[in-house]
Records
---
Amino acid sequence: MKTKLVKRHWCDFCNKAGLQAHSMAKHEKHCTLNPARDCRVCGLLGGSMHVGAERMAELVAMLPDPAEYLATPCWSDHEDNPQRRLLAALELAMPKLREEVSNCPACILAALRQKKIPVPMVDSFDYKDEMQSVFNSLNEQRNLDGYY
Ligand SMILES: [Zn+2]
Ligand SMILES: [Zn+2]
């Protein structure tokens, strides 16, 4: 019988796990839930990979706070429904955020996740789709999974 103990490493920010410490450290540095992350996708797009805590906080501040809208849940279909108001505020904020990050899908995803906004809620943003067009425009085939 052979027994082997393996170490697993978990990201401090999301629940991703891996067997290799160095690759998890690399993931953590760019994890979209890391408030001081750097951005590999910005690097791919020809910009600076450096984001950091200060800039990340600025991006998060551009989005409406879901807690403010959803503090008093009301699921009626009334026009003044808080969820609808949140969606409207989001769609208003998205173009400014896009401009600020030069349309980098990973930075948009990071800002939404760090603001605790459920990403599928945002109709005008599809991470997979937008990452695919980044890769298409770079004419490269890459594994999307590494960019979550
Ligand atoms: Zn992570
Ligand atoms: Zn980016």
---
Amino acid sequence: MPEFLEYCQRRYGDRFTVRLGRLGTYVYLVDSEDIKEVFHGDDAVFHAGEANTPFLGWVLGPSSVLCTDDDVHMRQRRRLSGAFHGKSVAKLAPVMAEIAAEDVATWPVGEEFSVLPHMRRVALEVILRTVIGVPPTEEARLVNLRANLSALVDLNLLKLIPVAVPSMARLWPWSRYSAVQSRADQLVRSEIQRCRESVDLDERPDVLATLVRASGDDQMTADEIRDQLVTLLLAGHETTATGLAWTIERLTRHPAVLASARDAANQDDQTYLDALITESLRVRPVVPDITRLLVKDVTIGSGDSTLRLPAGTRVDPAIYLVMRSPKRYPDPLAFRPERFLGKRPDPSVWLPFGGGSRRCLGAAFALTEMRVVLSTILTHVDLATTTRKGEPARVRHVTLTPKLGARVTVLRRNAEVMALR
Ligand code: HEM
């Protein structure tokens, strides 16, 4: 996929069209001025929900914030946004650190392993504890949720075949996935019910409690809450885990950056860690592109470079290509956190979280989680560096993951962790 996008850009330039039969016609945009027009265009014309629905609607449900548009989307987004502001998210950092430390304590020493499955476990646990609000003491409940919800969001290209050929949904193995879906659904619904009945509802800091407490216009039905919870699980689990795995993969290939990151973590220097994460999400974006479906005919650009696009076209800001443009980032493939040291990234060319009114709702949550988890890893263990080539990217549903799962070796644990074990 990344190679294909690069090939198309080399061959056809900063605007190119990919026709995918029943899946539609996709016009990729690489120029940041074109992309600005998409992100700041009329939401009633550039439909993200309608574009996402064929791929995600069958898992997320009809009222998911990712699969709706216009007023319905705005309402769902507003209801969720309070829980995702910087201040609300900052309160979750201690739980995130605790979950990361528990996982790092299980890492082997002196033996190579893939860090991505560990990051998935951490990201899932963070969602279970901070979004659904399951207390750590409820082990049996957590075990059940872990198994069933991770199976629900374990999406791959095979599972998407019924999107193109709906009649396949009734056949094995797709029929088996429906059973997984209904088990997970029941569990989520019983969490909603349990939350509605909880005696400490008013004090609970988790996202589910915020949604259940909402009143007036913001009040939600159980179906709506179910759809948002599954959306947050899907949107926030694999993405953050993959972002973390890529950052570790990059660090182990850049000894000087790894040393600076370790110093920063030990001194609680958030500025360097933030720059490191910003650079990692630039050079290894988790989501390579995003889509808007045009509801009306649209023109992009002006004069000689006017591009006319008919209604029904899918327009794709090519995040991956924009963030490795040599015009925007000198020596774009080099991994240099210093590019962002003490600087906010330019929102027109730093796009790992998309943009406009659909920009990732969980961006602050993800950046906090990445900083806290990385800091925990760097203070708890010493990672070995390697001279091996970087891992190529593998497409996994809508994300690009490190092909080998980001292989790492721990050289030693620090004394504090030894004491915890
Ligand atoms: C590194 C981690 C993450 C990355 C790279 C990422 C990336 C993205 C991208 C590219 C979009 C689409 C934006 C657009 O269409 O313009 C998106 C949407 C969204 N993300 Fe994230 N995401 C991450 C983590 C999270 C987390 C942790 C959560 C919540 C727990 C979350 C919740 C959402 C939601 C709800 C949307 C839909 C927003 C809307 O349509 O209004 N994401 N994300």
---
Amino acid sequence: MDARIPVGVLGATGTVGQKFIKLLEDHPWFEVVELAASERSAGRPYEEAVAWKQTTAIPAPVRQLELRPCIPDLRCRVVFSGLDAGVAGPIEDSFAQAGFVVLSNSRNHRLDPDVPLIIPEVNPDHLGLIPRQKQIRRSRGYIVTNSNCSTMFLALALGPLHKVFTVEQVIVVTMQAISGAGYPGVPSLDILGNVIPYIAGEEEKMEIETRKILGRFNGETVDLADFRISAQCNRVPVEDGHTESVSLKLARKTSVEEIAEVLGSFSGPPQELRLPSAPERPILVTAAQDRPQPRFDVGLAQGMAAVVGRIRPCPVLDFKFTLLGHNTIRGAAGASILNAEMLKAQGYLENRSC
Ligand SMILES: NC(=O)c1ccc[n+]([C@@H]2O[C@H](COP(=O)([O-])OP(=O)(O)OC[C@H]3O[C@@H](n4cnc5c(N)ncnc54)[C@H](OP(=O)(O)O)[C@@H]3O)[C@@H](O)[C@H]2O)c1
């Protein structure tokens, strides 16, 4: 008998939804039994409704699954959500109210004071918001979110630095991949041979979500981390992988070598617990002077690590470095799956009816 936990994917036809399906194929703990999307797709077999854009075939067990509408009557109690942000808010609410554990990728609930915004290596204690959320909302289920894709790599890298040196100021400039805009995303005539210096809402998300993730859980809610951060976000003609140029000011004096050591040796509960999707090291530090580059480095650690390079002094703030991560894996679906693994490891999935 398969003892895996049955799960569903909301927004299963989208860029993030497809990545969920690919990453959950043969997952040791979770089995995809339900797929849901919009009314446009509902009722159709998955392989007919989806514009499959992964480099591996659609996993056999889901090819013929009939897509369901996003109504909370699915035959599972855990759902991964890759829903369009225009509709995710109320749909995710309705699933949580009905007793589902919702692992959301959308912006809608990330900043709700009772919703954990989690990177399990950095702020696993924020999961303490779950009982409070259920109490406040009188819901049987609950919502756990992961951050915006570019925030993920910044907050993952800043996590250990903030703990050891206390971050005081951050300036970040991103070069974000096209797949970050979903499918079909940015028109080719807009992005080929071009850079678009605007991604709606992205700078605001980076500036606030980073401070929530690095904030302090006070037993009731999260006090935002007390540092200033300025983000500038650009869309570039890269398929997968967000690159970020980061400058930061630290309260404690340190050196390039010590920063490299703190980042490269960092690990957290997912590594200690040997969670199935946890990378051996969540941050990989490269000494090569022209790396990381998305073409060569985005697939390191199966896309689950942040890659840091070019750590050097900054004449304006204290230090600067380059950061890279896979936006649809650690920046989206892989992050949600790691969150679900963390929930299971901490006993939050034990009562399947929540
Ligand atoms: N792409 C990334 O790198 C990334 C990273 C982090 C977070 N995110 C976030 O993840 C979410 C999904 O992004 P994406 O890039 O995967 O978008 P996407 O490719 O546009 O996919 C959106 C999904 O939402 C479904 N949907 C749309 N309208 C719906 C409705 N009225 N009812 C139910 N389902 C509906 C679509 O189903 P149909 O096919 O039936 O229309 C599709 O499955 C967004 O909130 C995004 O901000 C994306």
